[in-house]
Each structure stands twice: as C-alpha cells, then as structure tokens.
Write a sequence for this structure.
C-alpha cells in the first residue's frame, strides 16, 4: 500500500514538553498550560514568538488566547477546538497537521493542562457544563437520573456485555492494569513509579461500578503536556528525530451518543473506532501488522481490550488471549502503553500518551523496546466520538 | 403515585433537559405510562426521543405505550462515588423492551441475593418511581415469575 492522504508525512511532532504529574500541582491550570508549552518549544528549539497556531480539545479550561497572551505570542492564524473530551485527544494533532500541510500555519502547539485531581475530578460526577440546558447535554436525561453519573458507571454496561459474549473475566481486565503498573514502575515521571501491583491487588481492589474495580480505572492527575507540530521539512532541521504524522483521523459511528451509545445492536462494538482505524491504514499506507508499538487510551481497562480488537491486532473476543500471550510486554509483538498509561503514569487526558509515542519514535522511552520502532499507533478515548494517530520514523 | 414534586434533595444529577422533542416522554412518565416514539411514516420505533426518524427522515411521529416488559441486556452495580440522590449499592439496568427499543433505569431493591440474582436476558418489568429531583421516572424490578424464584 502507498500513502493516499495529502497530509500524510507532511507534518511532524518536533517538540514535547510537560510539567510534573501530580495529585496537587499547587498552581493554576493556566500556569500549567504555559509551562508545558514553553517546555515543548524548548524541546523543539523553536522560538515562542514563532507559534502561529493552537489546536485544543474540549474540557480544556485554558483558551489559546489566554496562553498566547500570557506568553507574549503576538499573532495566531489558526486555532481550533475539537469536541468530546478524551475521545478527541488525538484530533488536535490532525488539525495541526492539516494546518501545517496546507500552509495555514507554520508552528502549531497542542496542549492539555488541568488540575484534574486537586480541582474538579471527572470521576466524582458530572462536570459543570453538564448543567447547561441544551441539546449537547440532552443525552444525560437518559442516564444521569438513574445514577449513571461517572464514566466508570457509564462504561460498565459495555464491559459486562463483552464479558458475557466472549468469556472475558475481571482478571483479564486486571492484566492490563498489572502491565501498565509494571511499565510505570520503571518510569520516574509516573505517579506510580516503583509501585507495581499484582493481579491479586487488582482482584482485591474495591468495586467501583461492577464489573469495574478501582484498579480498572485510570488515575486522576494534575499536570500539563504540550506538543509542537511543524512541517516535516522543518522538523528534519531540528534537534530531535521527527515523529512524522503519517495518519490522523476522527470518527463518529451510527447512532453515536457520548458515553452511552446503548441503542445499537451490539453495545460492545465501537464502529467509530473501526472507522478511525480504516482511515489511518489508508492514509498511512500501513496495516496493524506494521505497527510496532501502541499507546491505547486506557481510562478504563476494558476499553484497551476492545480497542485492540477494533484496530485489528486480534479477532473480536481474543484480546484477552493476546494480552495473556505477552504480546504487550516490552519484548512482545506490540508493546502497549510503555509509559505506564493513564493507569500508571498520569491522566493528562491522553496527551501524555502522544508524547510517549514521540519518545518511542525517537528511541528515548524509559521503556524503549529493543526492536526498531518505525510506526506507533496512538488512540483517543472511547466509547465517544474517537480520534487516533499513526506516528512514524523518518526513513 | 403522586405528581407533587418532593422537596429537592442535594444531588449532582443535572436537572432534566425537557424540550419540545422529549416533553411527551416525561409527561407520559408522570402518568405512569412508558411511551415510545413511533415514526408517523415508516412506523419505526425510536428511543431516546428525537425530532426526526433516522430511517426515513420523517418529522411526523406519534407514540405507542410500552407493555413495560423486557429482558436484561446488561447491568452495573454502582458502589462509588455515592450521590445523595440514590441508595447504594445502586443497580442500574439496560433493558431490551419487548417492543424492540432499549431503556436505562435503576432497579428497585432486589431483595435477598441482591444483584447476584441478575443474569443477562432475564425477564424484567418497568414500573415508575420518584427520582432525585422528585420526578416520576421508570424503575426496574424482576418480572413476577423471577421475583419469587
């Protein structure tokens, strides 16, 4: 296959930068955004005043104009914001790649910065915007009054149905958690650095929304993570190996509802994810067999199994067997979430995972596999409108 | 069942977003009737309500009243966090109604055995009860033949 998409490999992630990841940053979300943007620009060795674009996704409280103003960035020619929270985590990179490839902007920065642990915790109940009376929030009529108030509770129907259909068990979900904490244990930036868990720890962790236990749920974190996107041509002149954006896609499937697409025939399938996968393979001229490592959005462990299947790394229902085979380990066929994921490193709404994919391409992950890493899949959240990327080495 | 709103309890449940597209459904619920929207042209049932039929794009619609029986498609038992509007552990079900649409609602006390009694595809019934802001909305219980089992 050959790349067919006009923007494939025309843009690259040239800089990554983050604050520390914590449970109480002690400073404003605005400051976290500014710190992470400066760190990413310093990593790319690009001047702050050169930034002419920002691409964000919703649930970001720091508007691009606040960050541009604070940092003295004089002009922006491109700014966009993608809806649907973590499902859109990879979509701003697509926006940036489109802007750069088309010449609308030259240096586009993506960031997510929040105090999601010391401030409003997504796991505690509906966010403030849930109380706005409009069609965007109308879907809550059919879940919130019955007690499905958190993402964990809203995903539980799918998890149970998946278990029923394919014979997956809580311990199969727990295997994801154990592996993520193993990777996090050797990542000094991870909140759970040097704190691995066993499957017994997972199985004895309290039920949150049956069948999901505490250790099936990602962390809640404070922190900021930024990415700098420029043309591939420019990236080749910058200090780091470029992480070429060879695929970047969004997807909405039939009868899509945020977190609660419960009215489809099969609630345990995610057609929006399959739609993104098809676009990525077509754009990048690759298939799942050519992906060397993956960063899969792990707000909750069952989603990692479902995404492995939707992206074609195994047949439906067989993700538990793929994981049990050791394929996701550092020396396996497809190392997954080598930074420890959002279960182990931090919950920066998926953007810290994009940074890890860049490190894997550069060869600088703290858990760098011994094999050559030429193509990395990075995914956004599900079951919501979805997005994902394929990042590739430049050769 | 009273339609008089109860004193509001402190809860994080957002107030219902009642619109011209869905007010019929909430009005039905206040009367203890479980309504399902039906396309006025092709007859396809749909839930949750919406302004137009996704199959034939007709804006014409009426309703059918559900017999309030179905089978359990999936469920969860919510333990944490706990909202003051509910009693925990809170069992919430997704039901395949006999008419062919699905419905989310919370279970009444399941009695001895609790949620351990539940299994996928078991028969359930819909009844109506008070919810966190005092609204009358659907609730679930095991079908009579299961309740005594």
């Amino acid at each position: 296959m050959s790349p067919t998409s006009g923007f494939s490999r025309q843009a690259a992630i040239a800089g990554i930068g983050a604050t520390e990841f914590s449970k109480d940053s002690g400073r404003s979300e605005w400051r976290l955004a500014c710190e992470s943007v400066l760190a990413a620009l310093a990593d790319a060795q690009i001047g702050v005043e050169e930034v002419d674009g920002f691409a964000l996704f919703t649930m970001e409280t720091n508007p691009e104009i606040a960050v541009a103003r604070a940092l003295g960035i004089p002009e922006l020619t491109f700014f966009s914001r993608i809806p649907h929270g973590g499902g859109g985590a990879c979509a701003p990179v697509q926006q940036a790649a489109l802007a750069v490839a088309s010449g609308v902007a030259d240096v586009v920065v993506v960031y997510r910065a929040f105090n999601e642990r010391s401030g409003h915790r997504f796991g505690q109940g509906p966010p403030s915007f849930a109380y706005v009376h409009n069609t965007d929030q109308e879907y809550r009529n059919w879940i919130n009054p019955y007690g499905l108030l958190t993402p964990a509770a809203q995903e539980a129907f799918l998890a149970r149905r998946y278990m029923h259909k394919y014979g997956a068990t809580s311990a199969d979900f727990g295997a994801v958690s154990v592996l993520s904490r193993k990777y996090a244990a050797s990542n000094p930036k991870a909140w759970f650095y040097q704190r691995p868990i066993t499957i017994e720890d997972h199985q004895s962790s309290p039920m949150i929304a049956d069948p999901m236990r505490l250790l099936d749920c990602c962390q809640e974190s404070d922190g900021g993570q930024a990415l700098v996107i420029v043309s591939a041509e420019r990236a080749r002149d910058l200090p780091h190996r470029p992480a070429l954006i060879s695929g970047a896609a969004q997807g909405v499937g039939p009868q899509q509802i945020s977190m609660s697409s419960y009215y489809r025939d099969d609630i345990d399938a995610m057609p929006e994810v399959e739609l993104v996968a098809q676009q990525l393979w077509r754009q990048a001229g690759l298939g799942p067999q050519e992906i060397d490592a993956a960063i899969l959005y792990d707000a909750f462990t069952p989603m990692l199994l479902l995404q492995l299947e939707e992206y074609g790394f195994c047949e439906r229902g067989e993700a538990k067997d793929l994981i049990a085979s050791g394929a996701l380990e550092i020396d396996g066929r497809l190392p997954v979430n080598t930074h420890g994921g959002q279960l182990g490193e931090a919950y920066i709404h998926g953007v810290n995972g994009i940074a890890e994919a860049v490190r894997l391409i550069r060869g600088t992950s703290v858990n760098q596999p011994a094999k050559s890493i030429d193509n990395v899949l990075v995914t956004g959240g599900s079951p919501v409108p979805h997005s994902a990327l394929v990042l590739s080495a430049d050769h | 069942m009273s339609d008089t709103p109860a004193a509001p309890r402190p809860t994080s449940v957002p107030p219902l977003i009642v619109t011209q597209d869905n007010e019929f459904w909430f009005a039905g619920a206040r009367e203890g009737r479980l309504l399902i929207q039906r396309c006025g042209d092709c007859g396809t049932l749909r839930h949750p309500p919406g302004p137009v039929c996704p199959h034939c794009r007709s804006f014409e619609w009426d309703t059918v009243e559900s017999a309030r029986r179905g089978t359990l498609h999936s469920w969860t038992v919510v333990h944490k966090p706990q909202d003051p509007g509910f009693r925990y552990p809170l069992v919430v079900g997704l039901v395949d109604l006999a008419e062919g649409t699905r419905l989310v609602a919370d279970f009444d006390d399941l009695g001895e055995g609790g949620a351990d009694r539940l299994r996928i595809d078991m028969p359930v019934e819909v009844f109506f009860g008070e919810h966190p802001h005092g609204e009358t909305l659907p609730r679930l219980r095991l079908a009579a033949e299961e309740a005594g089992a």
